[in-house]
């Protein structure tokens, strides 16, 4: 065999190794491209045009060190972030688990209602009944299919949604302008919009506790095949960069198809779902409505599945470490069931009002994200890691900029709530 052929074979094997190792990063992307992208990014484009595009990219950059901690710590130690929190001190794991429990219930309710809202476009049943169906279906996939099935399903759905959205945005650039002659654009940087800005940035690209999910998913992936540090970081970076790009793509769709039209998203889950699908069908043709609806539903459904799986794994692991009990698949299934029941109760409380529920969940995520960010940063500079695996000067600087941004906006939001 010639040298050139040998190099080609080695390159192909190297690439195949990276592709086969992918999974946790894509699951993280699937969790992110739910409410934060389909709802917050699209709504930002519809209401403010392109004005928030740079802010979305900046948020993704400033949060990067805190999300990267999950893949980096686990790849370096073979342990989850939760093991790292416990090594820092029992109180750190207790704080994480307490806040994670609150976030788990709220987030499960939010994504399940959004999924049910999308399903109303195909099934004429009350949104709370559809939410129950969504939650039961998600539990079936997770309890009987486990991580391997979730890994395979997510890759297909992510590809379908990405391709469909890119086509829709490309067509929207060539569509006739829908801006009314007397339309006056408003600035998002007004005091009245602080609540929306905090909500959008709270789940952009996702709640920071997702880093712990990524850590646990990486451990599950390593049970199926070996994943080295380089592969783990590549998988994470690919998924993270894709979420940042798609956030801007969804903003573009809202801006090109809805901004300046005089139409606003309805707080009703059923009406919102119809409006969202119309954004696509306006540029891709009315015949594509059901196809787009199916892809959007599958995307949100995959988000619901990953959210239930991710939160349940972290809650189960937190309980296991705090009580020093052995690992148990049965306990994990029980946590998933309890989490779904509490999530459904929140859905019933909000009575189909999707946007108020999602805004509540996103704001909650932003207020707790400061703590999660600090826990991850503290762990990544600790002696629990070898010097080569700790954050260097560049990542430390970016982390501090991120922490300053998170704390500043949290204080600003609290002041806004007290004075509005």
UniProtKB/TrEMBL annotation:
The keyword Membrane applies. The chain crosses the membrane at residues 21-40, 52-71, 91-117, 129-149, 156-179, 191-217, 238-258, 290-311, 332-350, 356-377, 397-418. Keywords: Membrane, Transmembrane, Transmembrane helix. The keyword Cell membrane does not apply. It comes from the Bacteria. NCBIfam families: Nramp_1. This is Membrane protein. It comes from Shewanella sairae.
């Amino acid at each position: 065999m010639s040298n050139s052929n040998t190099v080609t074979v080695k390159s192909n094997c190297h690439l195949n190794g990276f592709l086969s190792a992918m999974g946790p990063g894509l699951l993280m992307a699937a969790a992110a491209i739910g409410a934060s992208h389909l709802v917050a990014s699209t709504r930002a484009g519809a209401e403010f045009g392109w004005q928030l595009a740079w802010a979305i990219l900046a948020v993704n950059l400033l949060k990067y060190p805190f999300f990267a901690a999950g893949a980096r710590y686990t790849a370096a130690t073979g342990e989850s972030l939760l093991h790292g929190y416990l090594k820092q001190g029992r109180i750190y794991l207790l704080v994480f688990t307490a806040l994670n429990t609150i976030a788990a219930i709220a987030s499960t309710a939010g994504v399940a209602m959004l999924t049910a809202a999308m399903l109303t476009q195909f099934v004429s049943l009350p949104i709370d009944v559809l939410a129950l169906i969504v939650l039961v279906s998600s539990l079936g996939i997770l309890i009987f299919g486990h991580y391997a099935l979730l890994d395979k399903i997510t890759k297909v759905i992510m590809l379908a949604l990405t391709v469909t959205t890119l086509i829709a945005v490309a067509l929207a650039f060539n569509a006739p302008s829908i801006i009314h002659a007397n339309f006056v654009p408003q600035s998002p940087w007004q005091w009245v919009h602080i609540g929306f800005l905090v909500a959008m940035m709270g789940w952009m690209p996702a709640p920071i506790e997702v880093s712990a999910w990524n850590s646990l998913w990486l451990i599950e992936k390593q049970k199926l095949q070996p994943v080295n540090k380089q592969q783990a970081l590549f998988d994470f970076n690919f998924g993270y960069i894709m979420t940042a790009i798609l956030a801007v793509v969804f903003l573009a769709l809202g801006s090109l198809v809805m901004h300046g039209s005089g139409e606003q998203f309805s707080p009703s889950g059923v009406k919102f779902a119809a409006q969202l699908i119309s954004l696509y069908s306006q540029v891709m043709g009315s015949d594509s409505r059901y196809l787009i609806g199916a892809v959007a539903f599958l995307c949100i459904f995959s988000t619901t599945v990953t959210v239930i799986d991710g939160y349940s794994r972290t809650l189960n692991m937190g309980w296991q470490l705090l009580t020093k009990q052995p690992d148990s698949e049965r306990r994990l299934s029980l946590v998933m069931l309890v989490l779904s029941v509490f999530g459904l109760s929140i859905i019933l409380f909000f009575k189909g009002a999707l946007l108020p529920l999602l805004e509540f969940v996103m704001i909650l995520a932003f207020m707790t994200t400061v703590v999660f960010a600090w826990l991850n940063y503290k762990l990544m500079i600790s002696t629990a890691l070898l010097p080569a695996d700790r954050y260097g000067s560049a990542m430390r600087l970016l982390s501090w900029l991120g922490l300053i941004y998170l704390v500043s906006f949290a204080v600003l939001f609290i002041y806004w709530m007290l004075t509005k």
